[in-house]
Amino acid sequence: MSDLADLYQQTILEHNRRPRNFKKLEPADRSAEGDNPLCGDHLTVYLRLDDDVIKEIGFQGSGCAISTASASLMTAAVAGKSKTEAERLFHDFHEMVTGGPDAPADPRVLGKLAAFAGVRQFPARVKCASLSWHTLHAALAGAAQPVSTE
Amino acid sequence: MTIVRPPISAAAGSRPVLDVAKLRAEFPALQLKVRGSPLVYLDNAATSQKPRAVLDALTRYYEEGNANVHRGVHYLSEHATAAYDGAREKARRFLGAKEAREVLFVRGTTEGVNLVASSFGHANLKRGDEVLVSAMEHHSNIVPWQLICEERGARLTVIPMNRRGELLLDEYEKLLGPRTKIVAVVHVSNSLGTINPIREMVRLAHAKGIPVLVDGAQAAPHLPIDVQALGCDFYTVSGHKMFGPTGIGLLYGRADRLEALPPYQGGGDMIRSVTFAKTTFAPIPAKFEAGTPHIAGAIGLGAAIDYLGGLDREALAIHEQDLLRYATDRLSALPGVRVIGTAGHKASVVSFTVEGVHAHDVGTIVDQEGVAIRTGHHCTQPVMDFFGLPATARASFAFYNTRADVDALVAAVEKVQQVFGA
What we know:
The structure holds two protein chains of two kinds. By secondary structure, chain A is α+β, with helices and mostly antiparallel strands. Chain A has helices at 2-7, 10-17, 65-78, 83-98, 107-110, 126-141; strands spanning 30-36, 41-50, 53-62, 147-148.
């Protein structure tokens, strides 16, 4: 049960129930779609940029608790950040969820995103946690093709 | 919600009770412990576990009989050829085919469908023609047809279903038109459990001269199969879903149908003679078995067929129907749990949703209790779209499952609801 409690932390359950920034931005400067074909998760990330800064971010879609909460917490974490800062956060987040049991999950760097540290004990769920980040990355890069976790 | 009772009404008490514990003892994987709990394996529609007899047959072949088939004149090659051809004869009996040459070894149901879609499509499909599939097909009985339709300028048409997950036969009959060149339909739905009335569907198609391919992947582990009684032109199954090895399956094709098709792949073993100017092909089944086949797989599948043949399949079916009813009743009794697929005639497959919880989260949490189920779209995205769902959780039962397995699943789903405060 302890692994399970690590995965389904209150923060995650709460963001799943009440996702932040769950909205379409119209018009958006950038948007990208992401799919996880394994479980059918699908989401779209919308961005408004001010030069290099993410001024506003929203997402819509359907997915499991991990992917929904991850998208919600991601939008909260990157709003107001520069592209470079957002990519840096993606890197740190990715390191945390794909690292071994002792991979750092420094709340000073990752803030509330550290709630996803438990995901690394569930390899099948890493893609759920990282789908929104890959989609954000695609939106920032201006990719035309939907991203897929496969 | 309405619970539709499957039609089998035979009282279990009137027959000798199935000794499930004894059957389970023959499956090494069922003795596993997972995350500290005994494995409760309810993902049989994805793949079944294998009895000792199948594992032994594989090992014995590699240790004592390994040689290529249909080539050497030496002792081992003769031995392997006899075992391989023997497996084809077992498969003929299992499917109820008239002749062994009507049974091809393929990699699995997916390859069986691809073979027919490609060979039949190249020989018969023209611009404006139609291929009729059903609303509950697995992707493997949709995508191969889409590929060939695109290539030939043909069109895919779809037999609709109702909210219980039953095909609408009136609509089906109307869709059988002058441009329909083949019907490709699933016998038992992998995501809904529905058993389709194949015999009637074949009769309706044949009345208009249209051949029928049946995807029997989910039927083979649950129902006795008789391709001659069904009347179908093609029938395909996967070994690994019927207690045999992965990588091997069967494609039945009526002899005249197979003879009329061009080869699917070229290579050794499928030819009569080869020159750079021209190649003539071997007669069926060799024409469709290019290259060294999966000899061990065929022998292992033969062992699975022998194993099933030694069991009272009617008793197994009664036991599975009891599990289906029990699981349907117990899951439906949980608040917020909804069973998807309530056809009147079902195999032991129960898809369900838990209100407020995504299927993927259900799967992870029940796995922590040692319960293995499938979650997702089950390679039937059009079925999920029809029900307006992103995914379902699916428990699929084999004869070696028990009511205690159902109880473990229900307790695990209650745990899901605790975690999510549902």
